[in-house]
Amino acid sequence: MIGLDEEALICDFAEVYHVFDWRSLPVKTAAILALGLGPNSRIMRKQCEVSVPLDTLLFATMLDALRILVWQNTEDGAKGRNKPEMFSKLLTETPQEESGFNDIDEFKKWRDSMIGSDS
Fold first, then answer.
1. What is the value of pTM for the model shown?
2. Which residues of 72-90 are buried (b: 16+ CB within 10 A; e: fewer)?
């Protein structure tokens, strides 16, 4: 757990056990306390590669279901258009990597390709 994200472990120990210096604990005690952290703790979510707590994901899923039910009773829903975006999908998908430019010439080349200009 320490190798995965020591800062998350420190935050969890401080929040759950009110221990601000976990290194002052005996190794066995620190290990027992670490294993006692719940599934919504930062370090456990990181180990399971889950970005949001389970209850948050369940609430988002319930909200999505309600939004779909309401949408289905609209004119757009009857025609299958303008479907609402799913909150649960927003919470679980990984963010796209941001792109950038290394220099001004690279930006100008991109800009010109986008607007069809030869400036």
1. 0.55
2. eeeeebeeeeeeeebbbee
d(CA 53, CA 48): 11
Alpha carbon distance 39, 1 (integer Å):
14
Q: Which tens digit of pLDDT belongs to each residue from 16-69?
A: 999 999 899 999 999 999 989 988 899 988 888 888 888 888 999 999 999 999
The Cα–Cα gap between 45 and 24 comes to 25
How long, in residues, is the chain? 119
Cα-based distances in Å from 47 to 32, 50, 65, 75 = 17, 8, 29, 44
For residue 35, give the nearest of 47, 24, 18 by alpha carbon.
47
Q: What is the pLDDT of residues 60-99, one digit of tens each?
A: 999 999 999 999 999 998 888 899 999 888 888 766 666 7
Is 104 buried (19+), middle (13-18) or exposed (0-12) by CB count in 10 A? exposed
